[in-house]
Amino acid sequence: MAISYKKLWKLLIDKDMKKKDLQAAAGISSASVTKLAKNENVNTEVLQKVCIALNCDISDIMEMIPENNQ
User: Is 29 left (phi over 0), alpha (psi -120 to 50) or beta?
Assistant: First the structure.
């Protein structure tokens, strides 16, 4: 299974936010934002900060995708 953060980027569009805005609002590093953009693993603390900043649940920003459906 792979992780996809497509839901996060759609949510940012809905909230009229850019990646820089997310970085500032959540207090996360640019490296963390880059990892999210590349669907790479990030610390659960980063995910928690993103959810708090966007007032959403973890399932609103990420999903598990079977490897063969990427």
Answer: beta
Distance, CA of 70 to CA of 6 (rounded, Å): 12
Q: What is the pLDDT of residues 6-58, one digit of tens each?
A: 999 999 999 999 999 999 999 999 999 999 999 999 999 999 999 999 999 99
Q: What is the pTM of this model?
A: 0.89
Amino acid of residue 3: I
Q: Which amino acid is at 44?
A: T
